[in-house]
UniProtKB/TrEMBL annotation:
GO terms for molecular function: heme binding; oxygen binding. This is Group III truncated hemoglobin. InterPro entries: Globin-like_sf (IPR009050), Globin/Proto (IPR012292). It comes from Speluncibacter jeojiensis. CDD domains: TrHb3_P.
Length: 160
């Protein structure tokens, strides 16, 4: 079992455990959405999840992150299609992606340490960058600035 300590900000922090399985991903997602669903910057964009209920959304997101982090091949949908539909009604801005990444990174850091935890943060940055570009048709200096500080990223060299 993972030993937890408490940070000065009062959040639980993992001593050393890495993301290992679907249960860890579920725990991470519950922590993240516990903050994101009621975050001022993301509130309107998260309305559909609040209305349907988090328990209906989590299996899909667990499939997605299990595929990204554990190579499980359990996600068979398109994140771009789903987010494109949301964007059509409530357009995403660079600030939304920046805030999403801040909350995601804080959630990962609060619960996990290790290579998969680092990969979760790196992949989230890549996903945010690609999603922003696809939905808005352009780049964002604000988002690029956040991503430039991420170890292991090369966002100054545009990925296809």
């Amino acid at each position: 079992m993972t030993e937890l300590t408490t940070t000065a900000a009062g959040e639980a922090e993992a001593d050393s455990a890495d993301l290992a399985d679907r249960a860890d991903i579920d725990r991470l997602l519950r922590h993240f959405y516990g903050r994101a669903l009621y975050d001022d910057a993301l509130y309107e964009l998260m309305e559909q999840i609040r209305v349907k209920g988090l328990d209906s959304h989590l299996p899909v997101m667990c499939d997605f992150w299990e595929t990204v982090l554990l190579r499980a091949r359990s996600y068979r949908s398109s994140v771009h299609t789903v987010h494109g539909e949301i964007h059509a009604g409530r357009p995403f801005a660079a600030a939304h992606f920046v805030r999403w990444l801040e909350l995601w990174t804080a959630s990962v850091d609060a619960l996990f340490r290790g290579p998969r935890a680092e990969r979760a943060k790196l992949q989230a940055g890549r996903i945010a960058w690609a999603m922003h570009r696809r939905l808005t048709g352009g780049d964002s200096a604000e988002l690029d600035g956040v991503l430039a500080g991420q170890p292991g990223t090369r966002f100054t060299e545009r990925e296809p």
